[in-house]
Each structure stands twice: as structure tokens, then as C-alpha cells.
Amino acid sequence: MTYLGTQAEDLSSPSLPFRKICVVGAGSWGTALASVARSAGRETSIWGRDEATVEAINSRLENPKYLPGIPLPEGIRATTDIAEALDGAEAVLLVTPSRTLRDICLQMRPHLGKGVPIALCAKGIEAGTGCLLSEVASEILTDHQIGALSGPTFASETARGHLTAATIAFQFSYADRLDTASSPAARFAVSLGSDFFRPYISDDLVGVEVGGAIKNVIAIACGMMTGAGYAENTRAALIVRGMDEMKTLADVFGGRRETVTGLAGAGDLTLTCSSQTSRNMSLGVQLGRGIPREHCFDGKAVVVEGEVNSVSVMDLARRMKLEMPICECVYRILHQGADVKETFAEFWARPIEGERRGLSISIDRPVAAAVEITQ
Ligand SMILES: NC(=O)C1=CN([C@@H]2O[C@H](COP(=O)(O)OP(=O)(O)OC[C@H]3O[C@@H](n4cnc5c(N)ncnc54)[C@H](OP(=O)(O)O)[C@@H]3O)[C@@H](O)[C@H]2O)C=CC1
Ligand SMILES: O=C(CO)COP(=O)(O)O
User: Fold this and answer.
1) Are residues 16 and 159 in the same domain?
2) 164 lines ligand 2 (CB under 6 A)
3) Which ligand is closest to the CA of 57, given by its number?
4) pLDDT of amino acid 172
5) For the residues 103-132, what does the mean pLDDT come to?
6) 264 contact partners, CB below 8 Å, separation of at least 6
7) Which element (helix H / strand E) includes 105?
């Protein structure tokens, strides 16, 4: 058995932390992750495009735009120069919104050190192509191992040092399986782990990415129903049926169902669907209360990944003939102007079906109608 970290007597090969980590993206999650890396003792740089934010991180140890009032540890070096940020970095956390990923990978490419692994921290599926973000990054950064960091992690809580667990997933190469401790996932884990941040390692990159992409769409649905006045029973049902939609997509991409029940699936889904700290849930609540989209968040542009991702998810679902009824409700309300209550009433009145997908059963309602059961 290979142990990670400092249990020296059992180490077949110690998992070495990265000396320097570069965080690309100085929004709320990028800044929180820079704080995580620095608190774990890493040399840490952060790249952001906004000069005022960069200046404030360097001079006041604060990101007033995205994490106001939360002190950052000393020693994070912020810059608007991507070459400077990446100089000497042994690993990268890429933390800009999913729609920017392709462009940012192209910007990073000339400045990355040889073989530097990259953990993607955005949650989503690329619009238009239906690609997982790791597929997009791998297409551009061909010489780099690409993984993901995901889980139930509100940036403001993590940055305040609240106990937070996350999953770091990389597909394991043959060499990684022989020497797990030297794998990028293990090295990220020991590099970021601290008294408040607890990483878990996974080799199911696809499962982790699917969880992160779908949970935001389901959180919008939970918010819509909450805002429209439905109760806790309904929200719990949506969370669990939403997990079923995650499983459907994980199956198609080749992810594992057990990952869907882990931190990056059920964990993140539960967090995001239970709190209006979530921008996705909060958007749903506002729309459910009848607030027009342009007035949500007081008219400010806020990153709501589930809003754009509902389009890519429905596009995939249609092309692959997948049943994802909750994602479809969100899509119809957000992008086709459907009414929240009417849409969810139709969703609720669908024919009775097996809880498990393999159990193919469809009963038209009212129950007196024809019953078909196939196993
Ligand atoms: N916040 C959270 O709790 C968590 C977020 N995530 C994920 O992390 C990703 C980033 O979200 P988050 O940090 O919260 O978002 P924020 O809205 O807090 O910040 C977005 C950041 O991205 C920058 N940005 C936007 N567009 C571009 C662009 N075209 N090129 C370069 N930089 C750009 C913004 O810069 P500028 O200020 O100049 O506009 C800003 O620094 C999302 O996919 C989200 O789902 C994951 C886990 C937790
Ligand atoms: O992904 C998140 C927590 O894990 C943040 O969720 P929101 O983007 O909905 O705020």
C-alpha cells in the first residue's frame, strides 16, 4: 500500500508537494484556492485581468470585488501578466468560468513549463461542442495532464478557513498506477491539504466533471421551486431525481456511478441545492418569485454556470436521446420563456415510472390508464 504525506515508514515513494502553484483566475473561487495553496505552504501566484483586484490582493491582502472583508494569507503574488504568473509554476489551478476555458488555455499555452499538470476548477460542459472541459483543455494543451478539482466548496467559506473537502481527479496513466504517490492527483492533494482543506483523490475525471456540470442546473430547478412556494419535500425529491440525471450523463461519458454519489456529485448537489449562497440556487429562487431575469442580482453580471450549461446539457440530451426531465424544465423556463409553475406541474404529472432506470415501467396518469412493464 502506498501512503501519501508524512507517514515516512510506509512510503514507497513520497508524494512531493509542488513548490509553486499558479492560480489562473482571480474571481471568488480562484482567490479562495490561492488562499488554500498559500495556507498549505506553497509559493502561490494568481493571475487576474483586473488591475484593481490584482493591486488589492498584493497591497491589502484582500479581493474586495469578489471576497470583500476576507483576509488572505501573506505571500500570494498577484499579477495581470500571465507569463509572470506561470513562471516557475509546477502546477496550475485553472479557475475562470467555463465559457472562457478555450481562450484561457490558448493564452496559457506558450508560458507553461514542460509537463506541468493542470487542474480545472470550473464546472460545466462547453457550449456548441458538448465537450467536457477536460476534453477542451486536452485538445489545446496536448503535452499536459489535465484533471479537475471539484466538490461542495463555497468560495467564501473556504477562504474563511471553514472545514472543506474536495475531490481532485486525474485519469491515472500506467505509470501513475504503479506509483500512485507521484501521480498529479496525489501531488495536488498533498500540495493543497491543510488543517482546514481536505482533498480526496479520484481517478474518475469524467464522473467528477459530469457531477459539477449537472448540479448547477439542478440547483436552479430547486431554487425555482423554492421561489415559487413549493416546500422541502419537493426540493429533496428534485435533488435525488437530479442525481439520477447525473448518473444518466455519467453513463454516457463513461464516468462511474459511485463518483456521482461522492463529493463532486451528491456532495456538491446537496450544498448547492440547499443554500442561496449558491448563485445557481439564488437565480432560481428569484425567477421562481417572478423577478425578471434582467433584475436578478440587482442587474449585476454574475457567473451562473447552470444557466449556460442547461443549453449544452439539453443539446447533449437531445442528440443522445437521454431523458433528463429536470434539466429540460430549467432549459424551457430559462431559454424558451416557459412559466415556472406550469412547467413543474407538467413535470410532476409525467407518467409513473420505475425509480431505477433499468426498471422500464410507464403508467399513464390517472392510474386507471394502460400499464406497461418491461424488465
Ligand atoms: N464561487 C464558488 O463558490 C465556486 C466556483 N466554482 C467554479 O469556478 C468557476 C469560476 O467561478 P468564480 O470564481 O466563482 O466566478 P467569479 O464570478 O467570482 O469570478 C470570475 C472570474 O473570472 C474572470 N473572467 C471572466 N471572464 C473572463 C475572461 N474572458 N478572461 C479572463 N478572466 C475572466 C473574472 O474577471 P473580471 O473580474 O475581470 O471580470 C473573475 O476574476 C466557475 O466555473 C464556478 O462554477 C467552483 C467551486 C466553487
Ligand atoms: O460550485 C459551487 C459550490 O461548490 C458554487 O456554486 P454557485 O456557482 O451556484 O455559487
Assistant:
1) yes
2) no
3) 1
4) 85
5) 97
6) 148, 150, 151, 166, 167, 169, 202, 207, 208, 211, 212
7) helix 101-108
Q: Report the percentage of the chain scoring pLDDT > 90.
A: 86
Nearest CA to ligand 1 atom 44: 122
Task: Tell me which residue of 293, 318, 317, 315 sits closest to 304, measured CA to CA.
Answer: 293
**Are 24 and 122 within one domain?**
yes
Quickly tell me which residue has 450544498 as its cell: 271
Residues 86, 29 share a domain? yes
pLDDT in tens, 18-32: 999 999 999 999 999
State the CATH number of the domain containing residue 268. Answer: 1.10.1040.10
Domain that holds residue 352: 210-374
Q: Is 128 annotated as a binding residue?
A: no
Peptide bond into 17 cis (omega under 30): no
pLDDT score recorded for residue 365: 60
Pairing of strands 371-374, 360-363: antiparallel
Asked whether residue 112 is assigned to any structural domain, the reply reads yes
Residue 1 lies in a domain: no
Residue 212 is predicted with a pLDDT of 98
The rounded Å distance from CA 373 to ligand 1 centre is 47
Domain count, the chain: 2
Among 31, 96, 132, 133, the mutation site with the greatest number of ligand 1 atoms within 8 A of its Cβ is 96
d(CA 333, CA 307): 10
Task: Tell whether the model's pLDDT for residue 299 goes beyond 70.
Answer: yes
Q: Is the CB of 268 under 6 A from ligand 2?
A: yes
Statement: the pTM of the whole predicted model exceeds 0.90: yes
* pLDDT more than 70, % of the chain: 93
Whether residue 88 lies inside any domain: the answer is yes
141 and 235 inside one domain: no
255 lines ligand 1 (CB under 6 A): no
> What is the ipTM score, two decimals?
0.99
pLDDT at 366 over 70: no
Residue 3 lies in a domain: no
Give yes or no: residues 160 and 21 share one domain.
Answer: yes
* Annotated binding residue 300: no
**Using one digit for the tens of pLDDT, what is the confidence trace for 132-161?**
999 999 999 999 999 999 999 999 999 999
C-alpha cell at 53: 483586484
